[in-house]
Fold Zn(2)-C6 fungal-type domain-containing protein.
Amino acid sequence: MTKSATRRRHTNSKLGCANCKRKKIRCDEVLPQCENCQRARRETCSYLSLSSAEINRIRLTHSLRNSQNKLLSSNFRLPTSTNNSFEASDSILADSRKPGSDALEFKFEFSKFNNKFPSSRYVSVQFHNTFVNTLELDYRSDFDERSPDSNAVSTDVSSSAELALSNGKALPSSVHRPTRFKRLDHRAQFGVSINRRHPMCMMLWDFSPDQLFSDIFFTCQRCFSASLSLSRMKQEALVGRSFPPNSITSLETKCNAAVNIMRQMFPEAMRIFRENLEVDIHTLSELNRQRFYLVLANWLSACSLSVLDCSIPIVFTFLVGQSIIFEEYIAYALKHSTSDRDGVQWLGFMTENILFIHLPPYEPAFLFEIRSNLEALCNLFDVNPVTLTNDADAYYFKRLRHFCHSMLSFLDSHILSIVYISRNEHFVTTYPPSVMFNAARKWWFLMPSKFHHRDTSSPAHAFLERLSCTVKMYRAAIGVGLDAVFPTARYLLSLGFEDPTFQIREQCKVTKPQPNEFHDPNLPEYLWRHMVYALRVYGFFQKRFKLYKHNVIWKGPFEDLNSNNRFSARHMKNALEIPVRSFNNLALRPEHYARQIHGHYDSILKDPSASAVFARPDESQIEMHHHSEHFDVFDHRHEIQLRPDFSCQYDYVPLIKDCPENQEYSIDDLKRYFEDRKGILQGIF
């Protein structure tokens, strides 16, 4: 009796493509089209016609299949149910529980260390609201070693000596030495410079003073330059530099007069721009140019008002006007079906700002430790360990001392005094926008972004240069730390606390100094320990933001957003990390970097308010194995080895893979982004 042939049964996969379901064969569910349809080459795979939401749903399901829940095998503490108050550092580790308590509070290890920042009570939080991470701007890598001449177009230019010799104008006894120079193509250089994310720099090459809105642009530019000069003169006066009598008062009067002119010009400029959009007689390229000059003038005005310490409602009026300009121009561009929507593509650099409103703010206890270490560095300036015989060196030392004390005063008056009092994790921005803006504008103009000691012949050059690098590194570490605590500042203000032009290896010496580099043999090691501390803080928050940026799946950043839920928190709800409270004596472990909470996937998929999902894959136990060791960065008995990623030998370094594809937003998404930003700013006042 012959055995009848049997056919493999279909798996009834709900996610398979339509062709595989019709043929009753197994679908491998490979995106963008399955391999069965690729081999057949006769039919179009149904995956190609799916919407972005359906594709993201398939990807989320794949991630859920391939993931394993390893939270139970982790070596860090989960939150416990307790109603104890954190009133003293000795009571933090107490584990007294009362029945019926329903508040979740976190208990941190290493809490009895003798740190100089005070112990604070942490309010009850939901499990999914565990402090999560933020930011890093994906500017040029510090390991980018491209030659500046690799993209330059060189053209031989004859020297003036050759021209003089050919014209017979050279002296009889002149020596003719042919010299040739390379002519740089500045347009090509802008394409690869650090400002490559800002297409406005390319448009400035085509600027004409006879075009519309050029007058308001020049007025705002002059006002901004004058306000920066005024701020610099006030800083130099505090250091001890003398200026002509009434020069500061005169410049301040001119700046205030220019501000009044700007405030009078903008309503008329906005009216003209709206009329040009309505009459529809200009090309899209011309309207984009008008929008560019008007937005840039608006931004220069907001910066000028910030430098001059104008009232926050006035500055926010200009920020709202900037959103209105973008919103109306994009609405006009959406009505035209032209293939090349000039001026819309360059808005891509703003899409990174959208991520920041979904990053939960970091726990700010580490800022008290930074303040303590910065105060210790300020004491070094008061002691003056190196004798400075040169007046120029003494003046440069006084400037560095002023910068260091300015950062210390900034932390005391604008950050540490409000960082817990003003915190509300159920509000969309966590902190009031006025508080964030007031801190941000003080930080932006607190000190120059670049400063070096250039007199290499000075006997104190090595000391002053190392001291400059330490001060700049503290500035960079505080900047990324504040971006982690105030992530929504980037969303509302388009600019955070981190300096986007800062390049560590170009502006700082990160190598360990020689013991005999200074007169005092202990001084190089002391400055090196401060540099290591600042580098650890900077490197940790840089890697933390990359981890979020490369492991986010979007469901739609502005879906179901209305006036009822606009001011509700938009944090990612399936990420868990243990915040670092001390970088002095705590090795970074795997639990200090965010992991996904797998049990929250189903609820997040059904939650219409969740627009961003954290999807970092679990690491293997071998990769997560890490030997933790207690140490003190400022203990000279322990040798510190600095890695290329600015971590030490005791720190765990996560594996961060580049995302296969970046999130791309449609023009309509950008329009709704500016509508949302305008709604938040207008809803505050």
Remarks:
- The first strand starts at residue 80 and ends at 81.
- The two ends are 88 Å apart (CA to CA).
- The chain is about 45% helix and 5% strand.
- The beta strands are 80-81, 104-105, 156-158, 180-182, 552-554, 575-576, 595-596, 612-614.
